[in-house]
Please model this.
Amino acid sequence: MSMTPPYDQHVRHDFRLFAGRANPGLAKDIASILGVELGKISIGTFPNSETRVQIEESIRGTDSYIIQPTSEPANENLMELLITIDALKRASAKQITAIIPYFGYARQDHKTTGREPISAKLVADLLTTAGASRVMAIDLHVPQIQGFFDIPMDHLTAVTTLTNYFREKNIENGVIVAPDVGRAKLAEKYTDILRLPLAIMHKRRNGKDGQDVKFVELVGDVKDKTPIVIDDEIATGGSIFEQAQALAEAGAKPAYVSITHAVLVGPALDRLQHDSIQEVVTTNTIPVPAEKQLEGKIKVLSIAPLLAEAILRVHQHRSVSQVFRDQHLDFAV
Model:
């Protein structure tokens, strides 16, 4: 996905784009594509560990956009986002859009047992209470989280960004693999774009919080084929490692992994180095420093063009869904 500057002068300077500390590199890339300077903001930490935010320019009556994924450390980045939104509101911004490329707490979207919170809903309420007018996120863990918001919510997808990479790679004898039935619809979008067959894995989760994963069935032919395993994120890499192992035992070649969010905590990097995994393709919704890229085995694609296009369309009151329809992807935004 690409954008062709320059844009009309009258849309270039009548909004403000601010960066939190969670992913300043992505914010700079978006600003560069849009042809704007990042807004002047000071974010720091008091000696008692509280977050301090000050907007260092007048934003009275402007549309303001704050870019801040709530990735690790999730609580600090979320609190920083909420405080920044409050600062923008008290500085009299007309509209505040929270751009959250990676929406933390998304996996806590329902109760798995008794007496648990639904933290994704709580975060949605906190963003609204802080003063956000609109929220924009990419590839939520489940699309139903959109319904937790009482303000407009733009749910974008990195599918076109990721599939464009695989289309150019032109993998021979490939097969799209959904890691479970819950990802079947997402996998179908890959198959429609890449014109590849589909296989679905069935897994059973056991143990506390479902951390123990056992694969009990594989539906589809993967023998002598190159799998492209799709999912929304990699955290510890346990599931992906087990999936790649199961596919190899079924006669498949080393797998490609296509995911939007590279959380990469705990033993993830050690697991991803296994021979059953050919390459991990992800985006920069979360920063992936060079030392985590395993000497090129983890390929990081920029999501900045997608977000820049979405910001411009929101600001101009144009359809965001059209971004995906233009690339032959039916994705409701």
Observations:
- The first strand starts at residue 15 and ends at 19.
- Residues 123 and 134 are 14 Å apart (CA to CA).
- The mean pLDDT is 92.
